[in-house]
Design brief:
Number of helices: 4
Radius of gyration: 16 Å
Shape: globular
Largest sheet: none
Helix content: 55-70%
Strand content: under 5%
Oligomer: single chain
Distance between the termini: 18 Å
Order of helices and strands: HHHH
Number of domains: 1
Number of strands: 0
Length: 89
């Protein structure tokens, strides 16, 4: 997906309904993200065996091509995508 007016395209988010996303749930989401980020090498190695792909390429892809934050720039991208009319099938 292309950038929209210079903002990133946000293609995935973890989301929860209001009232469900308690501070405890948010802490679990953040802990899960942090755990995955600190184990990218092991995750890449395991995926490489299963997918028969080079582990170093998978690790590089995860580290260099995916932004696991939802900072202001990414929020702008998410808002832009959600405001864009989708093509119907």
């Amino acid at each position: 997906m292309a950038l929209y007016d210079g903002v990133p395209a946000v293609l995935a988010v973890w989301a929860a309904r209001k009232g469900v996303a308690t501070p405890e749930v948010m802490a679990d989401f953040h802990a899960s993200r942090d755990f995955g980020m600190s184990h990218i090498a092991e995750i890449s190695s395991a995926a490489a065996r299963e997918l028969e792909l080079p582990a170093d390429k998978l690790e590089s892809y995860l580290r260099d091509n995916i932004d696991f934050s939802l900072d202001e720039e990414n929020r702008c991208g998410l808002e832009r995508i959600s405001a864009t009319p989708q093509n119907s099938a």
